[in-house]
Amino acid sequence: MIDTEGGCAVWAFPAVPDSVRGARHAVRDAMRSWGLDGALADITELLVSELVTNSLRYACGPIGVRLVRPHPGAGAEAAGPPPPVPPGLLVEVSDPLPVVPTERNAGPDDEGGRGLQLVACSARRWGTRRGKSGKTVWFELAVPG
């Protein structure tokens, strides 16, 4: 882990197949240390695994993974109603390839092509953004509370 400042965990993995397993374990450990285990940790681990696999398949170079957990009471105001959507767990996977991935419709016999479908179906919201040296695919998951 590169950084554990507050509610953020950041890692950089080499573009090698073992990085998928390393990312899964790192995410699981961070979630456990934050007290965010169970189903939320399971789906976070699965989606990170899918996105890191995509980065390995299509990009070369380091793969970044970043988790940002919501702080207790984040988004709540002293007066007025609570926000319509409470903050969620933000997850980002970055790689040096600037091409933004697109969700595709995998056929019933296809062995791949479902990673972004899983993200789209599981996340509260998700998206992509280009950076100076590649792109980031991000998603947000609701935190039970």
From TrEMBL:
Keywords on record: Kinase, Serine/threonine-protein kinase, Transferase
Mind telling me which InterPro entries this protein's record contains?
A: Anti-sigma-factor_SerPK, HATPase_C_sf, HATPase_dom
The residue ranges of the Histidine kinase/HSP90-like ATPase domain are: 13-139
**UniProt cross-references to CDD domains, sorted A to Z:** HATPase_RsbW-like (cd16936)
Gene3D superfamilies documented for this protein:
Histidine kinase-like ATPase, C-terminal domain
A GO molecular-function descriptor:
protein serine/threonine kinase activity
Indicate whether Transport appears among the record's keywords. Answer: no
Q: Which PANTHER family match?
A: ANTI-SIGMA-F FACTOR RSBW, ANTI-SIGMA-F FACTOR RSBW-RELATED
Q: What is this protein called?
A: Histidine kinase/HSP90-like ATPase domain-containing protein
From what organism does this protein derive?
A: Streptomyces fulvorobeus
Q: What is the lineage of its organism?
A: Bacteria, Bacillati, Actinomycetota, Actinomycetes, Kitasatosporales
